[in-house]
What we know:
The chain is α/β, with parallel strands linked by helices and 648 residues long. The chain is 29% helix and 23% strand.
Amino acid sequence: MTPAWSPSPERAARTRAAEFARFVADSGSGPFADAAALHAWSVAEPAAFWSAVWDFTGMPGERGERVLEPAEPFWRTRFFPDARLNVADALLGVPSDAVAIVAAREDGLRRTWTRADLHAEVSRVRQALQAAGVGVGDRVAAWLPNVPETYALMIAAASLGAVFTSTSPDFGVEGVVDRFAQVGPTVLVAVDGSLYAGTRFDCLARLTEIVDRLPSVTTTVVLGYLDAIPDLAAVPGARSWSAWLAPFAPGPVETVPVPFDHPWYVLFSSGTTGRPKCIVHRAGGVLLKHLSEQQLQCDVRPGDRICYYTTTGWMMWNWLASVLASDATVVAYDGSPAHPTLTALFDLADELDLTFLGTSARFLDELRRADVRPVDTHRLTALRTIASTGSPLTPDAFDHVYAAIAPDVHLASISGGTDLCGCLVGGDPTGPVWRGEIQRPSPGVDVAVLAPDGTPLGAGERGELVCRNAFPSIPLGFLDDPDDARFRATYFERFPGAWHQGDYAEWTDHGGLVIHGRSDATLNPGGVRIGTAEITRLVEVVPGIADCLVVGQEWEGDVRVVLFVVLRPGVALTAALEADLRARIRAGASPRHVPAKIVAVPDLPRTRSNKLSELAVREVVHGRPVANTEALANPEALDHFRDLEELR
């Protein structure tokens, strides 16, 4: 068996990861035979490792003498407890003509901000926030698209020591209020509308109701996105972005030094099974973790142009913002990744010479199914890395990337989540990529796969993905959670002494990992645990199948596997197709994986970050209510699963 891709020795030696290994060796640790040896050292010597990351990546501020302050339980360990810093210093960099942000809209509109432009806008926003009474610990909320002004607002809030939270314009009133009402922002910056797949969507009517239901908000600002001057008559008291900033001239950006553990972001759980949890993330911890992931695992370098397809409602937006701290350029794409064609992101890659393109596993699989071949139509000469997250990337999608997109890119399948605002496992630009596998654990995290009784499992054994040590971006906790009761129950009670990620995974013989889906959606027919991705990856490649989803249905004292399929136009779910699907699953997995029922539906529900919502379908199939349909991009899809005759 040969890898899907390997870097040349010369390419591997030029990576930031290789530079870091040499940096550590020059400091007295190592040398390291390979990335696995470096990772082992990073786990065994956390103080030395995270100190080296701080120095190597150029973290801002004063580090202080102490690196670790151990605590029990372990997740209360503090990193750099004496440090004073402000993340805005790292994100802003030095005012210059270097490009900081390129805004790219689906309709072809482009805007470029230099570092000097970013400084000027942040300075004005900072003054406007101060005039609105914002200071250390106050909350600033953004209901905005992925545009430069959103980055300026976030950086300005951080410079004051305020806490930033955001969600995207595709969220409805309930989705926005469910999130922001818990945070209690004093300033809300919204947008007049959004653009997706060629359609304009008005936001002002929704904004009026949102403001009425957020009593903490004292200042409402509207950014003109669809119209240069938005019509604010329907939003009493609101000011346009330009009018809000008009009284203030650009000047130097002052920053308030705060502790390493000062709150920076509030992010939200998906909320498909209840009210979204407000996850409070520490400033220094998130930035340090992002710098480690981006530079050591994704080879982000000064001058690179980085685009991750995301909205402001997904943690990948926060991740993307952090690349500014590596002197790289953020390419902020807003709109549909498939408009006007499925090659839109590759058109952008050629136009702007992207060095890094991040997207979802689903999008890469859509390219495979549609047999889209950018390798035949695009240059992609600057592109070094393609990253994928959101769900497991199928082996066939790996094949398609290398055969039909770019044969000499580092394909980094990464996995983590909103919970840690980062990754537990991800890429290694110095090592081989094996089809269907995530290359290795992230530096500094002690990842393990555990059996239900907590026993560590080896290669080929499937279990729960955990992290057995403290890492800098463990959240500070949840809002409104006395004594951390919900926080502890969510991540730490299942396996004492470990962070429980909630993914069903297995090690590979190469030291990599395969993730088989969320463990809370794991199937249990006859007491045998099955990851849903084990089935869907075999079905997705079948001609005639456009999409699929698997749930476990409680049935006659056990659980039976139910496969839902979305068929391509002109395809029917015949007895022959059902037999073919069952045969493929039996041969590719096991008899236990074969679904008891296969049901055709017209659509599948997805969250607003484009993840299939297996749990919402499972609840509907069992006649239980779905607590928060606002978290879904297409909640109407759930209607197809109610009272199905086939499941009676």
